[in-house]
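Practice problem: predict the structure.
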Amino acid sequence: YAIDASGYQNSVRKSRRSDAHNLLLEVANRQEQFFSNNNTYTTTETDLGYTATDGEYLSPEGYYQFTLAGGGNSFTATATPATGSSQSADTACTSIVYDNTGMKTPAACW
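Answer:
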């Protein structure tokens, strides 16, 4: 039997998106806790207890990094493939986003 390596790799990439999902949901949870304590969201990763590794705030499995935007009454957390991560080949989902309203974009990447 022949194995379709590209199909297998695409399947692996899709399954690794869960690393970004877990990260973004954890960030959202920490943002809500920060908001509860400070009546504002933050755009500073260290305010949420994250430490940079080689300048990146990494997901638990290291496939993604995240950045924060917004502040005040809203936030957007964006996960992108970490430097050197095999997820950079996941061209269908170069950015996976979650915001304070619970919006998950792009929908196909969730």
